[in-house]
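Quick note —
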Amino acid sequence: MQMEAGLDTGPVLAERRTPIGATDTTADLHDRLAGMGADLILRVLDRLDGPTTQLPVPQLESGVTYAHKIDKAEARIDWRLPAEQIDRQIRGLSPFPGAWTMAGGEELKLLRSQVVARTGAPGQVLDGFTIACGTGAVEILSAQREGKRPMPASDILRRLTLPERLG
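Predicted structure written out below.
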């Protein structure tokens, strides 16, 4: 895009699209977009010197919103929500700032999950690292304990006994 006075408001010189998969996290999407962006900028720079330079396309102003910084309190999981929404929260905030919940007295950052067909009281640990939600359940695939590195759920469960209910 070309520069203008506003934030990300200039005309667009080129674009690429990529689907967001059902298991993609913010980190997955970041890495994919970084590669796509590097390739695209090289193509645009090559094109700028040639006779076939396309005119920039103005960006539409309708539907534009400013994304405010996510507050840590907003990243806390509300287990009363539907499993699909919690799964999107976990994947959308992974790895930073990270969706989190309390496990006993410890804050636990949840990094990767999937929706599973189970039921129980919201926040109830059903088995392993499967947690009941307002509707449905999520299985936690990876997480991070306070002061520790991210780990697969199986490693977390070897080192941490989950309470009956997360909160």
